[in-house]
Structure formats: C-alpha cells, structure tokens
Model the fold of this input.
Amino acid sequence: MRRLTWYIMRKMIVNFIVLFTLFFLLGAVIDIVVNLDEFGKTASALSADSGIFVKIFTVIQVAVGYEGPRLFQVFAYLHGVIAIGAMCFTAANMLRSREFVAIMAAGISLQRIAIPFVYVMAGISVLALFNQEFMLPKVAPLLLRDHEESGSKSVSSFSVPFTKDSKGSLLLAPSVDPSTGVITEPSFLERDPIGRMVRQIKADSANWDEESNAGWILTNGVTVEIAFDVDSGQATTFTPQPIDFYETDLSPSILMLRRYSQYIGMLGMTQLNKMIDAKGAFGDETMLLRHWYSRFASIALNLLTMIIAIPFFVTKDDVVISRQAIKSGAIGLTILFGGMVVMLMPIAGIPAMVSVFLPSIVLIPIALLRGLTIRT
Done:
C-alpha cells in the first residue's frame, strides 16, 4: 500500500510541476509579447551604442528579469487551482488505463486511493505558506514595478504626503526608496490636541531601525520645539537641537502599503505581526488580521476543495472524463476564488478569525459527505 501511495503522489507531483511550468510560461510569454515595445525601450536605454545582438540579448535579459520574480507570485495565488488540475490529470489517466479496476480487484478501497491526493495538496499548501513568508516579501518591490520600470531593481521611489502615525504625528518626505527603505529629507511634525505644530524633526535621510522596530535612525537630524503662549497664542521657537532617532510606528512596510494596496498580499506573517503590533499606524487592523488568518484558512480551503473534487475522477463508474473535468473545474474554481473573496471580505458583527474560516466551516460537511460516498 505504501508503494501505491508513493506512486500516486509521484505522478501528481510531476503533473503539478508540468502544469505550473506551462501555466507560468504561457502567462509570461503573452505578457512579453504584449509589452515588447516597453521592454525594447528599456533595453535600448541600457544598451545604447551597442550592436544588434547585444540589444536582442538585453531585451531578453530585461524581459526575464521582469517576469522571473512573478513565479513566486503565481505560485502563491494559484497553487491550489493548479493542484486540483494535477489531481484531475493524474486520476483521469489512472481511470482511463483501468488502474482503478486493478486496485479494486486487489481489495483496496478507492477511498484509500484518495488519501495520496490530499497528502500532495497539503504539502503544496505548506510550501506555499513558506513561499508567502520568506520569498514573496523579498521580491515584492520587483512585483510592484510597471513595465516601464522593467530595467530597475525595484519600483520607483515615491513621495510621502502628510501621513499620520498612531500618536497623531505627521511624516512628510519628498522621496522614499522601496528597495532600501531609506527616506530622503524626512520631516516629522508633532502636534498638540488642537492640531498646532509643537515640534519639528528634520534630517538629511532616515533608515528604519530593524532591531528595535520602533522608529527611524536619522542622519544629521535636528529637532525644533515650539511653545505657544496661553493668553496671546503667540509661538516661541527654541534653539534647534541634534537628534539621531525618532520613535514612530510608520515603518517602510506601512508606507508601502499606503502607496500600493496590493502590497498587503505580498507580506509575510512576521511583517503582518509587526504592523498589527503598531496599533493605529495603518488604520485597518481587522484587514491585517484577516490576511494573517487567511494564510492558514487557505490551507484548509485547498484541502476541502480537493476532497470535494476527487470523487469526480476516483470512481468505479464508467464516466465521461471531459464532462467530469468541466464539473470539477467549475466547482473547484468557484470554491477557491469565491472562498478567498469571502475570507478577505469584512463581515459586520463577525470577528476576523471566524469570518476568515467561515468558507472552510461551511465546506466541512460537504467534503465529508463527498469523501464518504466515493463509489468503490
């Protein structure tokens, strides 16, 4: 039985790798063809005054550099769908070659044959969890690039408008580099309860303190305090004093998230934890919690969807494979994509943890019924 389990798992893993590779390459080729002009412009700027072969090589290099990091994004978002497809191909091939007949003739239940498919889905889902935690955050600045920025190593620097932290202080900066997290010429403005500026901190640049995760290390920082007379309301400015650290919860991740809303889907759980701990800095803590819990809820959703889809192919009946493929594809896509939408959608009156696992809770009895009624 162990040999049979490994045989099925090996076939499904091979099919998953083949399907994932084909799907990724197809999407990458289509994107390259559609945006070939943009890649060509970038390559021309990088290889000016070079020969035709150098320019062609540069175009290929720019295109691969742009599409390559998207491999981790595709795996993070579509591993469940591709795993369902790998199961369908594996089970359909075994059904077509009458392997299930031989298995049942040996006295082995088809319900037992369904277990290896669940094992592989669990392994792929755990691998996706590690990808989400360790790989996707590292390539996130590359994934946020437009096609016009394909030659750069990160999304372009952007300005920071007046941005409030949890204490009510404001940050203003002309530029922040997403690849390094360095702020150029930041200005922090502290205010009193009625909104008047009582302290200004300026610096040539600032680097986020990764060790304390509590603020910015300032280069040539200067602080100026301002006091207001209670009766006249006139302001008095004190002598500037040097300062080398400013405590705030406006981390580079929060600045990126306020600039690019899709950035939250590329964060790891460690980064989400830091943002949740910085209460009030982002403003929507429940959304952060939903994304945190969804890392585990998606695993449950993948496993339940796999159990629901398996009986379409693992059966003793003589079925039309194409018809079963349409049914399993329609049901699988609806459950996976619909479930993700529900998981990340705020539901009034329901805690974030419960709402994220709600699709899985609904699917548990359906999956049990499907698994126990496999015709064998």
